[in-house]
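One thing: could you explain this record?
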Amino acid sequence: MKTIGLNSLSTPIGRAVAGVLSVFAEFEREMMWERVKAEYLMHENEEDDMDGRNQ
C-alpha cells in the first residue's frame, strides 16, 4: 500500500497537514481561554448582584 506522506514532515503534504492541525490547535486554545474569561466574568457579575441585594 502506498502512502501519500501524511505521516512525514519531510514532504510538502505532511508539512501542510501539520500546519493545518497547528492552526486548529491554536484556535481551540484561544476559544478555551475565551470560555474561561466569560465564565469568570459571569460569576463575578453574580457575586456583585448578590452583594447589592444584601445591602
Observations:
- The longest helix spans residues 12-54.
- Residues 29-55 form one domain.
- Helices lie at 12-54.
- The chain has a mean pLDDT of 83.
